[in-house]
Amino acid sequence: MHPIKCFIGVIAGFLLVAPFPAAAQDKWPSKIVRIVVPFAAGGSTDLIARQIAQDLGERIKGTVIVDNRPGAGGTIGSEYVSKLPADGYTLLMGSVSTHAVAPSIYAKLRYDPIKDFTPLTMVATIPNVMVVHPSLPVNSVKELVELSKKQPGSISFASNGNGTSNHLAAELFKNAAGVQMVHTPYKGSGPAMLDLLGGHVNMMLDVIMTSYPGIKNGKLKALAVTSPGRSSLLPDVPTVAESGYPGFEAIVWFGLFAPPHMPPALQTRISNDLIAVLQSKKMKDYLNEQGAQVTANTPAQFSDAIAVDIVKWQKVVKAAGLVPE
Predict the structure, then answer these.
(1) Checking DSSP bridges between strand 64-68 and strand 33-37, what pairing results, if any?
(2) I need a labelling partner for 279 at 20 to 30 A (CA). Which of 74, 124, 145, 285 fits?
(3) Helix (H) or strand (E) holding 197
(4) pTM (2 decimals)?
(5) In whole angstroms, what is the distance from residue 116 CA to residue 258 CA?
């Protein structure tokens, strides 16, 4: 073949092949999209993810499902997603536990919360509420502390798992109040809440949305919320700060990620779709009813917020005297 014709053929072939990645992105989604929840079904992360999956599916005219992969404080499911292709078909519903707290808790964390994920958007923030089983003879934070000091180690508290945000929030409280309590970790807030309702553990710092039904029907007693101000859902429940511990704050956030190195165009496409879902009246109303506040920020803003939170929780872990596992 003549050299010039050969060169033209190569160029023509390149022009045909080059647009394919963009075309593939334009066709997203062409198959089922999974949102991996690294905690057990029934917890706050799971419930919010399922609502997002439903609304996102309607928006993109595709099927979005939730895949629960619990264990190790949410790090098993998070690590799983960090190793997958960034093709837009597997997302992660991460949280402050998996991306801000875990680096300080796990000495051999198998993922980097910044480098090994593509941030899409922070979904929402929500405070914890300190709840106890009705059988525990306390009705305030002050009475809980007094009982704990009279009977050191007699009170047990549940968490979503070792190193999760509500575990650290409880450790922060223990340190502030100078009390001893026994930690009982679970594979998510769902099973932890079941054991609290059953009286198998005494206390838990849980997000309002999963504790609220138990509080309203009298199966749980709410002692305090961990936000700087009171919750509109529980206006008669004081904050921990009001209860004698000024400056105490432990806010939970949820956020959506993709595996690392997602093409920028696809990242923007999915992020914009998620932000549109979160800013809809339907989603805002749903989250407000759960005591949560929509965030819906950009990938860059989300990434910056995570970096700040990692430093914050490092200080909390150090102050609480916890040693990385």
Answers:
(1) parallel
(2) 74
(3) helix 189-197
(4) 0.80
(5) 9
287 beta partners: none
298, 54 contact by CB (below 8 A): no
Please give the Cα distance from 292 to 99 (Å, whole number): 19
Q: Are 283 and 293 in contact (CB under 8 A)?
A: no
Output the CA–CA distances (angstroms, integers) from residue 279 to 284, 287, 293, in the order listed.
Answer: 6, 11, 11
- With tokens 């062409």, the residue in question is 30
Q: Taking the mean position of all CA atoms in its chain, how far away is CA 181?
A: 24
Q: What is the pLDDT of residue 321?
A: 79
pLDDT value of residue 315: 86
Q: Which 3 state secondary structure label does DSSP give 122? A: strand
Cβ atoms of 260 and 233 within 8 Å: the answer is no
pLDDT at 297: 97
- Asked whether the bond before 134 is cis by omega within 30 degrees of 0, the reply is no
> What are the φ and ψ backbone dihedral angles of 122, each rounded to 5 degrees?
-80, 130
How many other CB atoms sit within 10 Å of the CB of residue 197? Answer: 18
Q: What is the DSSP string of 23-85?
A: HHHHT--SS-EEEEESS-TTSHHHHHHHHHHHHHHHHHTS-EEEEE---GGGHHHHHHHHTS-
| Integer angstrom CA distances of residue 47 from 185, 208, 228, 244 | 20, 13, 25, 33
CATH numbers and ranges of domains, the chain: 27-126+252-320 (3.40.190.150), 127-225 (3.40.190.10)
For residues 72 and 129, the answer to whether their CB atoms sit within 8 Å is: no
**For residue 276, how many other CB atoms are within 10 A of its CB?**
14
Token reading at 241: 């700060």
What is the rounded distance in angstroms from the CA atom of residue 286 to the CA atom of residue 70?
24
Tokens representing 258 are 């993709």
Half-sphere exposure of 8 (CA within 13 A, CB side): 5
Model pLDDT, residue 25 = 56
